[in-house]
Structures are given as structure tokens and as C-alpha cells.
Description:
three-stranded mixed beta sheet
Amino acid sequence: MGQRKSPIRRILRWMCAAGLLWLLGSVLLVLVLRFAAPPTSAFMLHRQLRAVIDKEANFQLHRCWRPLNQISANLPIAVVAAEDQNFPEHHGFDIKAIKNALAEAEDGERLRGASTISQQVAKNLFLWNGRSFIRKGFEAWFTALIEFMWPKQRILEVYVNIAEFGDGVYGACAASERFFGKPASRLSPREAALLAAVLPNPVRLHANRPSAYVLRRAIWIERQVRQLGGPDYLKRFSAGSRSLNQQLNAIVMRSSSP
Length: 258
């Protein structure tokens, strides 16, 4: 009679198979979302679940998707100026910003976040809020996938469509219509700066009823936008994005042809 495999070996094999399946599934998911608009995000689902648990009967989630070319160029540069000024240059992780944050913490200052826009997309789209090492590991994995498989324009497009700009208000389209009564394509530099200014805490901060802090932050963001060179600052990765788009589209066409 053949020797029976031990339960531990069977469990390990199942765990390896499940891990490999998860890795392949995550790669496929990120590839699909390179082309398709995400129907929702992990953060949106969490907010809806919290509303049910807390019995918020009047809660409504507001969101609508718009391609980047239907969103005012004032908003992408505003969020880059506010959140991640090295966005066109890094590959998902801003090492310089991380080192600066750690150095400030060593000097006794409060440890501030150094998340890039790519990391925020990974977190908002796929993960839960928190500070555990496990979540950070997943965030790093999805960030690497996103940076490898998506051009910078796509990362920015998804970000401005899933970012929370108010309690239950996600994306530039919903925020612009709800707070300023206009389509996202008509956002002014000041309105874009106000939206970017509330990103650190969109539940407590309000773009349409800005506090003194939000107004000061919006003025700072507008100044940073001018120093970066305005929307032209983001054109440095446009050519590369078009090239990668063409390559990915060609791969998809070849794989779908008989």
C-alpha cells in the first residue's frame, strides 16, 4: 500500500494552490481594470456597509464615472500638487518622501503619511482602511501591479473618479455636481484646489463650505500648481501613456483574434 500523505502536507499544498490562484486573480483583475471603469471600490462598499450597520436611513452614495478628457485639467494637477508632486517621476513609491517623513519623525515631529497617488488607488480600490503590516503588504503588491500594468494617465483617471471628496461623495463628477452645481469639465482652478484640499479628511472638511484651514490649503495648492507649471506639468508622461496604450491594445487585439 502507498504511504498516505500527511494532513500537514495536504494543507500546505492547498495553501500554495490558493495563494497562486489569488496572485493570478489579482493580476487579471488589475489588467481588466486597466480598460474597464471600476463598478465600485472597497472604500465605497465599506461606507455603504457602515451606513447599514449604523442604521443611517438617509445615507446615499453619490458617484459617476467620467473619462479624464471630460474632467477639467485643473483637477488632476491640483490633486498631484496637493498629494504627490513626484507622481510623474516615481514608480509607485516615493522613496524620497518616505525618507523625509521618517527623518521628521526622528526629530520628534508627528509621523506623516507619504503615500503616493498610486498607493492610494491601490488602497481605495482593493483594500480596507488600517495600518497593519498585512494591509501594507497587499497595498505594496497592488501598487506594483498598477504601476507596471497601467500608464500614469490611467492611474490618475481612476484616482479622480474614486477618491472621496465628501461623506459618500466619490469622484470628480459627483463632487463637482453636488458641491458646485456644474459638470466636472467646468471646474475652475479654485474649485479644483478646494476639492484637493479636503482629501486628507473629506468627512470633516467641506469644499462647498470651506473652513479657514481649507481656504488656506486651497491657496497653497494653487500656488504649488503655478510653481509646477500648471496642467502642462502632467504632459511629461502623456507620450509614454499613449505608447503603452498602443502596445496593450495590440496585445489584446492579437489575443482576441482567431
